[in-house]
Structure formats: structure tokens, C-alpha cells
Amino acid sequence: MLLNHAFGLFTHPDAEWAEIRKEHAPPRRLYVAYVLLLGAIAPICAYISTAHIGWTVSGERVIKLTEVSAIQLSVLTYLAMLVGVFALGFAINWMARTYGAHEETVPSNGIALAAYSCTPLFLAGFALLYPVPWFNALVFLAAACYGAWLMYDGLPIVMGIPKDQAVMYAGALLTVALVILVSTRVGSVILWNYGLGPVFVEG
């Protein structure tokens, strides 16, 4: 089962990447059985915490989002995550030969590498149930660092490239990931101007 890889990537990542390369799971199956499930953790937890738990500013009143606003933002976040994983997987495949992937080119490898590298970020979504901004920022920063390391570690194994090419390849992919992140921020601002911004209430 694809979800078994989530645990393996934290305990024995090299062996898990080798299994993932052999698996060649079709992109559609990867999305349905892995990305759609794990990607839903953060939006669901964010909805619960922002609409029903709330957070405080300077230890004073509790601030929440309206349920409609929380649902809208959670759905948009979920869609952005799905698009982001696909875009990163596409970039991995697109740049493969540039960095020495002369072995078999399997389209699912790039999507698999992107999806499984994002596993720490998916699981970090549980931290949103404790809506304290500095705590959430630290958890997601740690998850992003481990996800970047997973990608660097998995590139030579999954894509069949020399290890000395993995640093440059991973650097290029992290640049792509940052572009995707900035694009989602810009998209958020545009959508907020069309009335899909957060609506706050006092708890």
C-alpha cells in the first residue's frame, strides 16, 4: 500500500526510495491513494482550528474565521497543494535528462518523487490543530527542511542519476518549489481581491 511509504521515509529512506522506484505506481493511483489523502490533512486541520478553536493576539480575545470563510480557504489551499505537487513532479521529469537521467524514463517517477518528498509537509498539517503561529511556523520549517533532504536523497535513486548531479538537480528543484510557493501567494492576493479573503469573527 502506498501509505506504507510514509512511515518508511522516516525510518529507512534509502530503502524506501528503492522500493518506490521499482513500484512505478501510475500518477493517477499516486494521487488518489496518497496525495489526495495526505494532502487533505492540513486543510481539514486548518478548518477545525480557524473556525472552531481560534487563536489569540497578545493573549487577549479569541479570533476565528467564519465557517464559510474557513471552508473556502481550506478548499483553495487543498487545490493549491494538489497543483503544486503536480507542477513539481512535472519539473522533475522535464529536467531529468539535463542532470544525467539517461536510464529508463518513467513519467511516474517525477510525480512519485514530488509526492513522497512532500510527506513531511503533509503530516505537519496536524500541527495546525494547535493554532499558535510561532509553533506552526517551526513545525512547517522543520518539515520543509526534511522534505528538501528527502528529495536530495531520493533523486539519485528514483531518477537514476549520478550522486554528484543530485546537488545541482535538487537546487534547481527547490528554486521551482519556491516559484510555485510565490505563485500561490500571488494567487491568494488576487482571489482575496475577488471576495474570497478571510472573514474574521471574535470567539
UniProtKB/TrEMBL annotation:
Domain Yip1: 7-183
Keywords from the named record: Membrane, Transmembrane, Transmembrane helix
Major subcellular location class: membrane
GO CC terms of this entry: membrane
Coiled-coil stretches noted in the UniProt entry, renumbered to this chain: none
Subcellular location: Membrane
One Pfam family hit: Yip1
Lineage: superkingdom: Bacteria
Transmembrane segments: 31-55, 75-96, 108-128, 134-155, 167-192
Membrane topology: Multi-pass membrane protein
Claim: Membrane is one of the keywords in the record: yes
Name recorded for this polypeptide: Membrane protein
Protein source organism: Marinobacter salarius
